[in-house]
Amino acid sequence: MRTTLTTEGSTTIEVPLLDEDADYPPSSAEVFFNPSQRVSRDITVAAMHVLGEGMSYLDALAATGIRGLRLANEVEGLEVTLCDWNRRAVELMRRNARRVGREVEVVHADATVLMRERSFDVVDIDPFGSPAPFLDCAAKCARRFLWITATDKAPLCGAHPKAALRKYAAHPLNTEYHAEVGLRTLLYAVACALARYQKGMTPLLSFSTMHYYRTLVRVERGRKKAYESMRHVGHIHHCHTCGYRRWQEGFCSPADVCPVCGAGLHYCGPLWLGAYKDDSLCEQMIGELEHMKCSEGAEMMRLLKEELHVPTCYDYHVMARRRSTSPPRMDALLERLRAMGYRASRTHYGGTLLKCDAPSELMCTLP
Ligand SMILES: C[S@@+](CC[C@H](N)C(=O)[O-])C[C@H]1O[C@@H](n2cnc3c(N)ncnc32)[C@H](O)[C@@H]1O
């Protein structure tokens, strides 16, 4: 395998030379490496800076080891373990650990076995595609924090309903807020996995990008905590005709018709209806990411921090199309909603998506 050196943050490691003509260059070498995940790794480093020292951290699917090695090198006092079942990846990780000059543990194992045998304060799951096969053992293994990446956005967003049913035991709907539905469906699956081990969760940071979701949850032990977190699981009834939606805790409620246009409502769920981020952590991370010169990450945290804690968002272009009118400027619409006495915000899901705490009946009559 031909390799080259790359630097992220203050960490330099050896990575495979990728075939840029391949269908998917990150998988073109014997060991996986995706340079475009740098922002995700910057955000991980920034969050671990804020959350503190003195914890053990497992990079369960480590590949080159870049994520865990950056944490070992850039965050004081983390005890890092890197695991992969690919022998070439493990050889590369060992060389990289020597190059970085930090003491890290490198384990050549099936991560699902390692996670059943040992536990760590922080567990990080960054798989190819879906994290579903790892959720159960990661939930067992994580003592304090759990990071999960999912690149299978299509099933989570409702574009592949059969895959969503198989992997997540859920029926996400493909709506104008499909990106948020996907994130909340992932959080539902994480909450269920933790609850089986009598653990609850508080999501601290969750975001959606073009290619992946990433979430960080605080793990809370005890039957009561598990029960409390499952109380945040609910469902949405959505009208595909006018965009009306309503949400409710619990797994189901009687089918109904849309109170705005009379069309049938469609079930979407189960999904997490609670908060998916901690605003003070987002605030602290803006400073950390600016300090790291990660402007993309800092901008993401700024948008996340401003985002209202309301399930579902509205695409104002779709709203305008439904009413056969041209869309107003986003700022003008937000101002109008605020002038009506509601809270309204942009979202990190996209430039045309907004959140508002006005009743859905009203939102369906706008703009
Ligand atoms: C997407 S890559 C990880 C990328 C890495 N976290 C990064 O930031 O560059 C997934 C890795 O998981 C490894 N893997 C997949 N299933 C595994 C398992 N059950 N146990 C251990 N490693 C596994 C693969 O060999 C691959 O290196």
Q: Tell me the overall shape.
A: globular
Strand runs, count: 15
Bound heterogens, unique: S-adenosylmethionine
Could you give the order of the helices and strands?
EEHEHEHEHEHEHHHEEHEEEHHEHHEEH
Strand residue content:
15-25%
Tell me about the biggest sheet? Answer: 7 strands, mixed
Distance between the termini: 57 Å
CATH topology of the largest domain: Rossmann fold
Mean pLDDT: 96
The CATH class of the largest domain is identified as Alpha Beta
Spatially, the strands of the biggest sheet line up as: 5-4-3-6-7-9-8
Range of helix content: 25-40%
Structural class: alpha/beta
The number of helical elements comes to 14
Query: Which CATH architecture of the largest domain is right?
Result: 3-Layer(aba) Sandwich
Rg of Cα set:
21 Å
Point out poorly predicted stretches. none
Number of domains: 2
CATH superfamily of the largest domain: Vaccinia Virus protein VP39
Binding site for Zn(2+): 239, 242, 258, 261
Binding site for S-adenosyl-L-methionine: 41, 67, 84, 110-111
Keywords: Metal-binding, Methyltransferase, RNA-binding, S-adenosyl-L-methionine, Transferase, tRNA processing, tRNA-binding, Zinc
GO biological process, one term: tRNA N2-guanine methylation
